Amino acid sequence: MANVAIVTDSTAYLSEEMLNAYNIHTIPLSVVFGEKTYREEIDMTTSTFYEKIQEVDQLPTTSQPPLGEFIKLYESLAETYDAVISIHLSSGISGTFATAQTAAESVEGIEVHPFDSEISCAPQGYFVLEAAERAAKGEDVDEIFARLEELRERIRAYFMVDNLNHLHRGGRLSGAQALVGSMLQIKPVLHFEDKMIVPFEKVRTSKKALNRIYELFEEDAGTGKPIRATVIHANRPAQAEEMKAELEKKFNNVTIDISYFGPVIGTHLGEGSLGLGWYISGA
């Protein structure tokens, strides 16, 4: 029976209960306000982050975990495990996955297998939980990786932001796209494509953007197959609860959770962003 450890980074935004229940190990990314660096979920909570960005003139930047932190974590896991699967946010928006690869090559005594989720937040968490459940059953690395690749084909996620400038400033969206959005007051529906955040469709208002996300969701939910979904919000808990209630009322085949855009991803998307991620869980 294989003994595989599951590692992810803080941008999966999994609850402490889930991390403990599935024995998942995490490594934090950080937000930087001026000279001060805060590891998300350790030195700074999400609620504190959204309070702090109201008080500062200059928006924070973000940073990936140092190579040494990865090596230290992997070496500590070598004492208990035979192998590690390390699942991280998209390599198109962060160097975290590349750092995990470098660390994997540097560590002795344990095989480390980094996995690029090509996405972030709750959908990244889907990969992590799937891997952890299978690791607990004693599946080996190849079996778990095969399942993750299969899952990749079924995960869908769309989101909308209040202001495209955050994404543009952080280099996560091209200048032309940001400029067009600001000039026309467009509220585009965004998604990940080829590991990058790109507009899926340009919509004029927030309401229309949200309705379009619902339509995309209905393409899968309307089949009647069991769906696992997550409403994701950037400091909009009441609106997230409304979205959850609305979808639960319409579909009885959907299990819906609520998650959030924490400090690192919130820095790039901005307060007020909303998203919906899901996959057909019965396949």
Automatic annotation (TrEMBL):
The keyword RNA-binding does not apply. InterPro entries: DegV, DegV_C, DegV_domain_contain. GO terms for molecular function: lipid binding. It comes from the Bacteria. The keyword Transmembrane does not apply. Keywords: Lipid-binding. Pfam families: DegV (PF02645). This is DegV family protein with EDD domain. It comes from Salsuginibacillus halophilus.
